[in-house]
Structures are given as structure tokens and as C-alpha cells.
Amino acid sequence: MNFKPILIAEILFMLFLVLSCTGRTSQDDVLQVVDVEGNLDNFQNISLNELGAEIKYISLESGSEIMMRGVYHIDLSGDYIFVSDKRKCILYNSQGKFLRLISKRGSGPGEYRLIRDVKINNNKFFLQSIYGLLEYDINGVFSDKIPLPRIENSVIESWIPINDTLFFGHMPCISGNEPYTAVVFSRSSVYEKFLRGIDRSYRNPEIKGSGVYLRDASLFRFRDLIYFKEMLGDTLFRMNKENQLEPELVFSLGNHTPSYDKRFNLLLDERINYVFISNIYRVNNIFFLDCLYGKYVPVKRQTPVDFAGASNWYYTTSILGIYDLNTSRLSFNNITATENILSQTGLINDIDGGPRFYPSHYINDSTLCMWIRAYDLITHVKSEEFADFKPANPKRKNQLLEFANSLSVDDNPVLMLATFKE
Q1: Which pLDDT band, with edges at 50, 70 and 90, does 370 fall under?
Q2: pLDDT (average), residues 77-90
Q3: Which residues, 6+ apart, have CB-to-CB distance to 307 below 8 Å?
Q4: Cα–Cα distances in Å, from 86 out to 120, 130, 139, 185, 359?
Q5: Angle 394-405/374-381 helices, nearest 10 degrees?
Q6: Measured in whole angstroms, how far is the alpha carbon of residue 253 from the centre of its chain?
Q7: Fold of 34-420
Q8: 280 contacts 218 by C-beta, under 8 angstroms
Q9: CA-to-CA distance for 364 and 416, rounded, in angstroms?
Q10: Contact residues for 215 (Cβ-Cβ < 8 A; gap 6+)
């Protein structure tokens, strides 16, 4: 009478062992796959109010010594805003008031030639230069230089602090021969290596070449876990408490992504033939996908305009995707045929009629950020679109108008923060 239950239990146990040993295949079968390719035409009007967002504008103080070309790197933490335009690094307070420049260009201790990223971690300020990570204290005093690991042909391109002593770094696959995709490293040594091949899109034989977009990856922290996805990879990973990468989601682009061998020989003018997920951000149970649509954008100009010596038929090729983990639904924001760059793409700003929100930086579990040129914001509030728009709160529209009118066209950029409720 007890034979069948015992036999079934043994079979199930053996099946578990087989699946555990095969690892990669069974993991692929159970991973949640987001069908990006099948939803590229699923355009919706998605608004900030619909996603429960609150917005805030911060004007970064200007001055002759601190004029910025743009906010290409940013981190916010508590009372501080840490920004860089690649040539200089500036510390502001949370209201945008200038506090100090962090170091300067040069070759001396704590100086840099080029800024590639900035981060705040426990009131320590990190700047990535060509040669490594430079660490400063709250007063901007240089305290340490942390060399970036080099393993065979692999070098660190982007990184994020794990804690006070460990960092996680991405090693892009430029030639096809680099063995590692990422490492955990300390101030003095490599702690853990992650072999290339953990991503489903890296299964083909090694190929030599010169790739486009191969350096880019999304790295962010959500609920104290680090998330990681290479731009041309299909898998989003999270790092567990043991500093091991675990696959979280697969984003399937099908034929809209270049093949493995093609990505190492992709010419610049061929990029338009593909769709790329440039960045991923997570807030609550929503993933925001920053997508480059190339020739697949639904709205094009009637006649091209000259841009950098080339004919440009597109108002924008950047379109924001919203993937809801609760419903497993993916949709993309409609774009608009307008020369007003703040009205073309992103979440519709039905709060005050201001710029459509298209995140460019991850701040924390609930807040994303975009930066706006002062000139563009002033132009936006003078547009017919802004004048005709009826937001949910007319008072907020008037406040935005007053804020924009207080700016000068050559002021430093404005930060737009969107905080999303649970």
C-alpha cells in the first residue's frame, strides 16, 4: 500500500537532482519572459498621475566656475546632489544650492582627466576616472584611490558600491573573447568573477570584432539588491545577499536585436535597423524600459532636418516602456510629432502640464530623475502646447510657469524628480 507514494517521492527527488544539475536549461524554462518584440506596437497614453507620481523641480545653482553642459552623471543621497558633466564634478545640497567643486582636472593626487561616473555611499563621494575610483569625504578632501580590476582583456566600464568595502563592476564584451561579464571587487583585489555565458544571448562561439553599444549596461539598487543587465544581453540579473547573480527576467526582442556575430560588426548607420533597451529602472513593481526604436518609431517627420551633417527623419527614437510585474503587461508611451523636445516622448505630465517625464537616472526605490536644459524649459512654458494643456492641478501649472520665468536661458540644468507611490 505504501509502494506508490514512496516510488513517486523517489521519482520527484531524482527529477529535482536532474534539473539541479542541468541548471541553465531548467532555469530558462522557469524564467519569466517579457515579450518586448510582440508589444512594440502596443502604444498607450500613460500619465504620471496614472502611476501615482509626485514631481519636483530643482534648479542647480549657476556661476562662472560651475557652468555645466549637462547632467550626465548624478547621484542623490539625503542632503546632497552629486553631479558631473564629464569635465567637472559638483556637490550641491538637496535644494540645488552650490556647496563645492570636487577636485579638478589634472594629473595630481585626487585629480582626474575625464569623469565617467559618480556615486555617493555613506557620505563618501566616488568619482570614476580613467585610472580608477577616486574617493572623497564630505568636505571634498581626497582620501583614497581604488584601482579598477583588469582581467585578461576585460576592464571595468560601470560599477556600483555594494557596501563600504565591496563594489560590483561590469566588464563589457568588446571583442567576443573577454571571459568575464562582471566582478565583485574590493579596494585591493577581485572578490568574485562572473563568467560570460550566464546571459542567454551569450551562447555562441567566440567572435573577434569591434562592437557598438557593447560597453553599456544598467546597474541600479532596488530594495538593497543590485540589478544588472547588459544593453545587448537579454537577461536582467539581481545580486543576492551572498553576492551571487541570479536571473530575474528575460526581455525578448526576437529579430529586432542584432545576432551575436552581428553585434561585433555593427556599423553606426545600421543601428537604426534594430531596437535596443538602453536602460532599465525599477520603481515598486514597475520596470521602466528606455528603448531606442530606430526606424520602427510610429511618428516621423514629413521632411528631414539636417543633424550633424546627416538627414534626420525622426522627432525622437527614444520611447519609454512600462512593464507591470503585477499584471505581466508591457506597453509603450505614445510619442508626439512636435519640435518641442520636452513634449515628444515619455510619461504625459498631467500634473502641471510641464515636460513629459523620461527618466535618465535612477535615484532610489521610489524616485527617478531627468535633467532639463533651462532654455528648453523656458521654451516649453512659452509654447502653445503648454498654454492649451489643462492639467489636474491648475495651481501647479502656474507655479511651474513662475519657476521657469525665474530662470535664464544660460542657467545650469534643472532636475525633475518623479516619486512614485506604492
Answers
A1: very high
A2: 93
A3: none
A4: 16, 11, 21, 24, 19
A5: 130
A6: 18
A7: Neuraminidase (2.120.10)
A8: yes
A9: 14
A10: 157, 172, 174
